[in-house]
Amino acid sequence: MASETDARVHDLLRHHPVIDGHNDLPWEARERVAYDWDELDIALPGQPTHTDIPRLRAGGVGAQFWSVFVPSDLPGSQAVTATLEQIDAVHAMIARYPDDLVAARTASDVERAISQGRIASLIGAEGGQSIDSSLGALRMLFSLGVRYLTLTHNDNVPWADSATDTPVVGGLSAFGREVVLEMNRLGMLVDLSHVSADTMRAALDTTQAPVIFSHSSARALCDHPRNVPDDVLARLADNGGVCMVTFVPSFVSQALRDWDREPTDAPRPQASIDDVVAHCEHVREVAGIEHIGLGGDYDGVDHLPTGLEDVSGYPRLLAALAERGWSDTDLAALTSGNILRVLREAEAWAAELSTARGPSLARIEDLDG
Length: 369
Hints:
By secondary structure, the chain is an alpha/beta fold. Helix content is 46%, strand content 11%.
């Protein structure tokens, strides 16, 4: 029999479903079946992925940012082509399941989809390699529906340092700052997951609109360069941005992070839902309840914490937070309220900025020699 907390979470998700910041199903579909949605039919349960429509429904997911990731070591023009193929695959997926999925580009689109009982499908590009140092390419991605760009992935780009590469430009170059400002002008969210801490700070110094971390957790609890330091989390209050807590085991469990760096004869530690709860509480404490969301990174990793093995797990996380005293208002901010606000504010900034400055044709060689 369902507990009182489970019933409370179920009711909350009917009104405030999860808007998740990052899901890598498109790349999984590319790798597994070359985008053959007949072979990988996500309308059916039992798929080998972390994600399918029945489990999205069970997880209370009302909107998903689908990542159009491509490897960050692809040469620039190849990265652009592969990104376009990823976007095409997302469009094809949405068209195949019109009763369940619908394309969304604005906060109002998301709210409309949820009111219709469909899962709003947004697109996020994971890594600046996808624009090949071209603001024209950035604008074309936006026109195709991309609503955030992660400034780097695991490797640096010529204009921004990654969290997991050797720093070169010390955060953002002049062209990197131009990219951020052009994203503001378009209404594209600046995503600071994967970037170095100096890049985070430089982007916050530059942006005029709220930023997001589409799938990152707290460095104070797990010392991984992919996580967000407390000084950056604290700046989200002034910026208005959102850290969407991720579930990647090595980002949420310090014991696992330590083991991965120096393996021992002891069994490899297993991350759990309790680790994710701790990160949610820490981000709320440092950044504030208005600046937290969820970005599971499903289908982007091989293993997930116990209790969060696939996209059906969100209600368990919310129940654990409710048991720790989170109010319905807090949970609604976490699931959808905060990221919807950020989308609206980015749209408002774009409307204001588009009248103030025209589009730039700059490429990296124009600004950085």
